[in-house]
Design a protein that fits this description.
Its main location: membrane. By secondary structure, this protein is mainly α. 74% of the residues lie in helices and 0% in strands. It contains 16 helices and no strands. The two termini are 33 Å apart.
Length: 541
């Protein structure tokens, strides 16, 4: 018999884990739909905003708030909602969040003013923050057998990725047939099914020893996360400026204060002792790194297709469907492979495969580079897809059952933070490379030359105002400079994926394959138990 940390244990009769029944699998299906919806809502607003602008006439600042406030508040409330589920019940929080999401969606669908739409999007963000931490914690309690839990996490991860892929497609179809508010009505059948079937299919679970929710810690967590994410987004959008930098610093200061308070409380909002669990802290680090790379590289790849290849957003979405489908298939294969092979080996190999894909992206050229880009992205998606679903599984399976909600919120929060960091940092690297390489012809007026030198989007706009050879020269230079920026970002991502492979191998080599993981009812091991052990979840009915 093999222990969690990889040492040989005393021979013992094999333990039989309680296996999930049809009720748990149906409950998983019901919970996958809200998961998909949260990512659809995150992406569909980019397509909807032009229609909203025509109808409601928001200012440029209001447009930014309409787009961003949903993601801001999801990130800000994840930790709070995950811990709240541990205290009062994850099923209760999930159903309450589903009802709130449905109500806020109806408010957004029939909004008659910009302010109402912004408020509705804010409420959607708060409600959305209840969903994924609660669902991850509930999966922890519903699927006790490691093999079944791995399969369930693969299905759940598929729904998460499907939301990203289907968001633009579904949004485009809805906007083509109905008014812009119709995209929010997708929540009605999804959340309606959750509210009707959830009470019968989903078991309740919570931490029976949890204390009261510390409201001051909730406030500190918001003051830490919201300014930090806001600062990152603004730096990505407008470059270096005093206000975003102040927001970043303020967020970091409040984060320090928040962490100090958590270390002093008997019942903290965030139990810092969770980070002492080796498998959990390693998985969170990997989740941060993969989100960082996929967020930044995804942005640069999408911009290349639109700005360099000149493809429409619909065409871009269609081309990316193929690597996205590959990502979904591989994402479901990874848990199956880890039934026989240790996760460390699977994730190390997957990370190195993704690194190869990034090497291919360093060879993309500004002319005839479409095939190279798609091949490179396909390879990256194959490697990244194996990492994506496995990290939440490792986080949840290594967490004490009473802390499952908090762990689920951490898994989601580092993903949100990783995407924000990737878009900001890798976006800034790409932008800096572009600005250092672009050459603006002297015939272009000074103001227009400044605009063209800032970004490829600016250069594309200036080209429409300039006639003759200078326009063609500027466009060629801008495309070449942006492609060089893409190559530079890809090179940075090669090193990140190699580092990710090292983290996976070093941090997870003590974790056995799913087939050898300890199960509920297993007799005591010879080795001393430690915080790396995979605990069993005990639902509270």
């Amino acid at each position: 018999m093999t222990t969690v940390d990889g040492r040989a244990g005393a021979a013992a009769a094999p333990a039989v884990a309680p296996r999930a029944t049809w009720r748990e699998w149906l409950g998983l299906a019901v919970m996958c739909l809200p998961t998909m919806l949260t990512t659809v809502d995150l992406n569909v607003m980019f397509l909807t905003l032009p229609h909203v602008t025509v109808d409601l006439g928001p200012s440029s600042t209001e447009q930014l708030w309409i787009s961003d406030i949903y993601g801001f508040l999801i990130a800000g409330f994840l930790v709070t909602m995950g811990t709240l589920g541990d205290r009062i019940g994850r099923k209760k929080v999930l159903l309450f969040g589903g009802a709130a999401f449905l109500g806020a969606s109806l408010l957004a669908a029939f909004a008659t003013s910009t302010i109402v739409l912004i408020v509705a999007r804010a409420l959607l963000g708060v409600a959305g923050a209840t969903l994924i931490p609660s669902i991850l914690a509930l999966l922890r309690t519903m699927f006790k057998d490691p093999k079944q839990m791995g399969a369930a996490m693969g299905v759940w991860g598929t729904s998460l990725m499907a939301g990203v892929v289907l968001g633009p497609v579904v949004g485009g179809l809805m906007l083509g047939a109905f008014w812009w508010g119709s995209v929010f009505l997708l929540a009605v059948p999804v959340m309606g099914l959750l509210l009707l079937a959830g009470p019968a299919l989903i078991p309740e679970s919570k931490d029976p020893t949890a204390g009261r929710l510390d409201l001051f810690s909730v406030a500190l967590s918001l003051l830490a996360i919201l300014p930090f994410v806001y600062g990152l987004k603004e730096l990505t959008r407008n470059g270096w400026a005093p206000v975003p930098l102040i927001a970043l610093v303020a967020g970091l200061v409040f984060l320090v204060v928040f962490l100090r308070r958590q270390a002093q409380l008997a019942h903290p909002l965030l139990d810092l002792s969770l980070f002492k669990i080796r498998a959990l802290s390693t998985a969170l680090t990997m989740a941060l790194m993969i989100a960082f790379v996929m967020g930044g590289a995804g942005l640069m790849g999408s911009l290349y297709l639109q700005m360099v290849e000149g493809l429409s957003p619909v065409r871009v979405g269609t081309l990316l469907l193929i690597p996205s489908v590959v990502m979904i298939v591989v994402g479901n294969l990874a848990p199956a492979i880890t039934r026989k092979v240790r996760p460390a080996y699977v994730l190390t190999g997957a990370s190195l495969i993704a690194a190869v894909g990034m090497v291919v992206l360093t060879q993309v050229e500004s002319t005839a580079g479409l095939t190279t880009l798609l091949v490179g992205l396909g390879i990256v998606y194959v490697g990244g897809a194996a990492v994506g679903p496995m990290t939440p599984f490792l986080v949840m399976s290594s967490t004490p059952p009473e802390k499952a909600g908090a762990a689920g919120s951490l898994s989601s929060a580092v993903g949100e933070l990783g995407v924000a960091l990737g878009v900001a940092i890798l976006g800034l690297i790409g932008t800096a490379t572009y600005r250092g390489r672009v050459s603006v012809p002297g015939e272009v007026p000074a103001d227009a030359a400044t605009t063209a030198g800032e970004s490829i989007a600016g250069a594309t706009a200036v080209v429409k105002q300039v006639d003759g050879p200078p326009a063609a020269t500027l466009l060629d230079s801008a495309r070449e400079a942006f492609t060089t920026g893409l190559n530079t970002v890809a090179l940075c991502c090669v090193f990140v994926f190699v580092a990710l492979a090292v983290v996976a191998f070093v941090g997870l080599r003590h974790v056995p394959s799913l087939g050898d993981m300890p199960m509920p009812g297993m007799p005591p091991k010879e080795a001393e138990p430690d915080r790396d052990a995979v605990g069993s979840a005990q639902p509270v009915h």
